[in-house]
From TrEMBL:
<dbReference type="InterPro" id="IPR004160">
    <property type="entry name" value="Transl_elong_EFTu/EF1A_C"/>
</dbReference>
<comment type="subunit">
    <text>Monomer.</text>
</comment>
<keyword id="KW-0251">Elongation factor</keyword>
<dbReference type="GO" id="GO:0003924">
    <property type="term" value="F:GTPase activity"/>
</dbReference>
<dbReference type="Pfam" id="PF03144">
    <property type="entry name" value="GTP_EFTU_D2"/>
</dbReference>
<keyword id="KW-0963">Cytoplasm</keyword>
<keyword id="KW-0479">Metal-binding</keyword>
<feature type="domain" description="Tr-type G">
    <location>
        <begin position="115"/>
        <end position="310"/>
    </location>
</feature>
<dbReference type="InterPro" id="IPR009000">
    <property type="entry name" value="Transl_B-barrel_sf"/>
</dbReference>
<dbReference type="InterPro" id="IPR004541">
    <property type="entry name" value="Transl_elong_EFTu/EF1A_bac/org"/>
</dbReference>
<dbReference type="GO" id="GO:0070125">
    <property type="term" value="P:mitochondrial translational elongation"/>
</dbReference>
<dbReference type="Pfam" id="PF03143">
    <property type="entry name" value="GTP_EFTU_D3"/>
</dbReference>
<dbReference type="InterPro" id="IPR033720">
    <property type="entry name" value="EFTU_2"/>
</dbReference>
<dbReference type="InterPro" id="IPR031157">
    <property type="entry name" value="G_TR_CS"/>
</dbReference>
<comment type="similarity">
    <text>Belongs to the TRAFAC class translation factor GTPase superfamily. Classic translation factor GTPase family. EF-Tu/EF-1A subfamily.</text>
</comment>
<keyword id="KW-0342">GTP-binding</keyword>
<dbReference type="InterPro" id="IPR050055">
    <property type="entry name" value="EF-Tu_GTPase"/>
</dbReference>
Amino acid sequence: MKYRYAVYLKAKYVYLFLVLFFFLIFVQTFGQSGIYLLYDFERISGNRKHMFSNMATFLIRPFLGASTKNATKKSPLIFKYAKRIVETPTESFSTCTRLLAAPPAASKKVFVRDKPHLNIGTIGHVDHGKTTLTAAITKVLAGENKAAFKAYSDIDNAPEERKRGITINAATVEYETEARHYGHVDCPGHADYIKNMITGTTQMDGAILVVAATDGTMPQTREHLLLSKQIGIKRLVIFINKADAADKEMQELVEMEIRELLTEFGYNGDETPIIIGSALKALEGTDPDLGENKIKELLKAIDTYIETPVRDLDKPFFMPIDGCYSIPGRGTVISGRIERGVVKKGDDCEIMGYDKKWKTNITGIEMFKKSLERGEAGDQLGALIKGVKREEMRRGLCVGKPGTMTMHNHFEAQIYLLSKDEGGKNKPVTPFAQVITFCNTWSQPALLEIPDKDLLMPGEDGKLVFNMYKKMVLEKNQRFTVRDGQVTLGYGVISNILPDRDPEELDKTRKAIKKQRKAAEEAAAE
């Protein structure tokens, strides 16, 4: 009797083992969809306890992301989680009925590279109509099936932007003309968000400077022109906006003022196209002479005056990261404009910056919600990467071909300090002054050293040594901007990469020098 009972127990355990083994294979094969199938089957058959779907949830949990693991830990009953994922719609999974009855989901559109691609954008003073002009361009081209219309609220879509009526972060829209395909960046004009504007302009090949006919040139008009020249934007097109609110004489005065300003900043003030119109009239669809026709004239000027740059496709892939986000169930996405080279699905890459380094693989590429097999220099795209968490990524990091990038915190540069009339400060730069350095999409505090002089005056150019607190991706001939608070001090080019230094030691030296200066000033006052 005991022998027969022992055989029975062994057979029972072997049976359970086989059931669990095939059950595990089922769960791993079908994933969450398998849970849906089990849940629906149990519901139809009257199994109220949902034993199998609960067990499936328990088995599949180790293979799910961190967020779903946490959800199961918090829930006292696994069934609650199983029910939750069944009742929550997702992009990738559906319930049993939908899986069997629904047609396959439409695949994502493929980006067709049949025209030259150009990155352009609107720059100018706050409230001069940059976002309105961007929306008006999409509306006019939407009528010709060359763009999807983006309303003002779709471009300034953050709650804070809507509340304050200003653009805070640079936003990108897509459109095309007969000659080109465009990625259009709408840059912030408010002084508080100038660092976001710097990030936006670094992605541009050309720009539309928007100036209100009612105001003329303003402080941010000058600063945006200065930054555009510094980062290498060679040609601009001018749109004098709000022509419906200013008389002819005022419009002519503003045009003369702009041409003088363009010449002052090194642009061709005589040949630069200037279009006078009203973005609001184009957006409202009224007064075509000031509205729609002027938008078409602007687009024609962009096509003919702003040249398509020669893309650097032969060098190793390099892209500064300007944004990152996560797609549930798929992974982390990084976005930016490719500076040089090409990237394809399946390529291995390195990500560097802020003293850290990651190895990753590109599993997908998209541009304007269309899939790409290959991204090229000049493309503003998003890349799906694996093996890296969203929390680890941030703007300012750089992604590139493995072994082609290096990080440093110490470099020498040739720099020009702006004079007071050019928008700079009227005080000289002294040794161990602390400034903010803007380069590519990153910004970092740095301590300055002056090798050849005791100080550098506004309006002068000279050699400065920069000591940053964190290592960033740097290379010779890289351009950058130097700011102090709300003021742009100057701009420069990296001339030499120096051996890394300890920021803490530099900070101690800076404090000691500051203490000596203070003591000397007090002694002189006595």
